[in-house]
Amino acid sequence: MENKSIWKSGIRKRALKKLNENITTDILIIGGGISGLTTAYFLRKSKYKITLIDKDICGYGISANTTGKLTFVQDLIYSKLTKNFNEEIALKYLNSCKDAIKIVKTIISRNKIECNLENVCSYVFTNDINKIENFKKEEEFYNKNNIKYKVVNKLPNNLSIKYGLKVNYGSVFHPVKYLMGIRKMLLESKIDIYENTRAIKLTKKDDYYEVITENGTILAKKVIVCTHYPFFIIPGILPLKSSIEKSYVVSGITPINKKFVAISNENPVYSIRYHTDDDKTYIIYAGSSHYIANHFDAEKRYKELINDYKNYIGKDIKYYFLNHDVMTPDYLPYIGSVYKNDNSLLIATGFNKWGMTNGTIAGKILSDIVLDKDNKYIELFSLHRKITKDKVKNLIVYNYLNAKTYILTKIKKEYTFYHENIEIKTVEGKKIGIYTDKKNTKHMVYITCPHLKCNLIFNSIDKTWDCPCHGSRFDIDGNILFGPSVYDIKVNKDANY
Ligand SMILES: Cc1cc2nc3c(=O)[nH]c(=O)nc-3n(C[C@H](O)[C@H](O)[C@H](O)COP(=O)(O)OP(=O)(O)OC[C@H]3O[C@@H](n4cnc5c(N)ncnc54)[C@H](O)[C@@H]3O)c2cc1C
Predict the structure, then answer these.
(1) Of all atoms in ligand 1, which is nearest to the CA of residue 59?
(2) Any idea which fold 412-482 has?
(3) Is 120 in the pocket of ligand 1 (CB under 6 A)?
(4) Does the beta carbon of 183 lie inside 6 Å of ligand 1?
(5) Among the listed ranges 56-65, 83-92, 448-457, which one has the minimum average pLDDT value?
(6) How much is the CA Rg of the chain, to the nearest whole Å?
């Protein structure tokens, strides 16, 4: 059983050049996940000088820990959007998902990217009879909009369910192979890519931006931030109107690829897909999601998922890993301009765990904005869209949880989530966490998150320090793994604490 993403297994990780000088560019894309690489793809033939930087290797961020389902059957999203906005908005979102899937398929076929793309059926289901009423509302939307579906009480792998909808539409792929394919073809274009190059600070100057990285400064006329969670605060929008959900994924070998994807309408949500590579078929089972602010039962949730998998799906787990995504209170992502009436700084985030489609359409929208082209989805995903009823309710929940977590991390001395190998000390007013590994080596870090100063929690499964407020994650030696923090939390190794 390996604590590693299935998608990172067997892929050779070789970094491109690192930025070691000051440069200027027309358009700077920060972040080479699905949204950043797709944006670069659509800009590759433009008249502009395009530069892309990634703090790690492109394709190795959140997109490498996904389950890689490409479908518009995203829980009961259309009835939720109809209730929260109206049917027109729900239909627009549906079309954006379909367009995104077409884009992925076109990129794959035009560039001959081998990434295990397969067509499958999509299911949404429940095991709770009280939830069937919600499914009826989704069916209403499907009926009105000519989406063909069947009502079912069993999944193709014979898991019985109380109620489900089956749609003959959807695909799965290997997300890292796909992104590596785009990266390879971008290298053959005139785009400059720098890896292991972390953006630390972004400042708006007169008519350009200054982006400071570890070893060089970039001056750019426009900046597109695709770092999953932007590393700067956007007043009134981020972090205020967002939250982070953590989910766990387990995978093992199974005899037959049943060619379907399924998502439950439960709390927590569960999802299933299959993947065949090198004559081996894997089942990928994800779930046990929770707001990161509810971190106390994270370890329990991980174990629950593993037990569920062993009881209902298979005995042998080959990979287990976790991932998190940015959630928005009205279920739509934030894609577009940070400032009203000014397209010089753009972002894409808040994919609500559907970034394979939302990140792809983000690439098209952001590139169209830069190229001054019309795009029918600009308003739908605008950061400046109007507030809705559900949004207010969810906003209160997010911000209450975040504030509570922030305060708790400050006033509590010990956490249930810390395990016996963790010591917490305060040295010269700074909190230090010390993890002792199996070889008795001590690993020390500052445990205050550099982003917005929440205290970090030790994640004993992945052996990482995680921020329970905004999702930054660090390894046991303090290196930043995931933002929004742009700083490490290393303590001087020679210090004798
Ligand atoms: C458990 C789970 C399962 C999921 N399954 C699905 C699914 O089946 N289908 C689906 O549609 N979606 C799914 N998602 C959602 C999807 O994985 C994400 O929404 C998507 O991958 C996010 O892509 P991104 O480009 O925004 O981020 P990333 O892939 O993280 O890309 C951001 C890049 O920016 C870089 N970066 C970050 N900070 C900096 C910095 N300061 N300077 C330079 N570079 C930086 C990172 O290294 C990274 O490469 C799932 C999510 C979870 C949690």
Answers:
(1) 49
(2) Rieske Iron-sulfur Protein (2.102.10)
(3) no
(4) no
(5) 448-457
(6) 22
